[in-house]
Amino acid sequence: MSISDLFDSGFKDRNKGHFASIVRVAMENGHLSEEERLFLDVLAKRLEISGQEYKEILANPKAYPINPPYLHVQRLERLYDLSRMVYADHVLGPKQKEILTRFALALGFTPGNVQYIVDKSLSLLVMNVDSDTFVYEMQHMNK
Asked: Does residue 115 surpass a pLDDT of 60?
């Protein structure tokens, strides 16, 4: 097995774990709404989750390891990706903010400031900022 095969496998496993974590958050109320399912469909394609893997993860998302971001910067980067997916496709409609709040909480942002973080995230995306600008602005939003 070559080193590139190992890298691809690790990357694929991390994507599956990330997707499974998002499925867990989306299903925390016991079911998936149509909007959540549409969002997951788009996310699965972007994370290169196959149809079979998608079905397996939906059937048992707890079978996959959680890969929580350890560093604050990594949480912000993941928040940027999730925010961009939620905002760019307008798949979730009026539930964008609600679901993004659930994702932000699952990423480890505190309930006390999560609404401010979500509002700031969406406002930065309206301005069409790139990842680096997003992370910088989020790190310095209290200054």
From this structure: yes
The sign of the CA dihedral 117, 109, 13, 39 is negative
Residues in the chain: 143
Helix, strand, or coil (residue 141): coil
Residue 114: burial class (beta carbons within 10 Å; 0-12, 13-18, 19+): middle
- Apex CA 27: angle with CA 64 and CA 101, to 5°? 105
- Cβ atoms within 10 Å, residue 32: 15
Contact, 76 vs 135, CB < 8 A? yes
78 Cβ contact partners less than 8 Å away, ≥ 6 residues apart: 18, 69, 107
Give the other-Cβ count within 10 Å of 119's Cβ. Answer: 14
Helices vs strands, H then E, count in the chain: 7, 0
Give the tens place of pLDDT for each residue, 72-97.
998 998 898 888 777 766 655 667 78
Average pLDDT over residues 55-78: 86
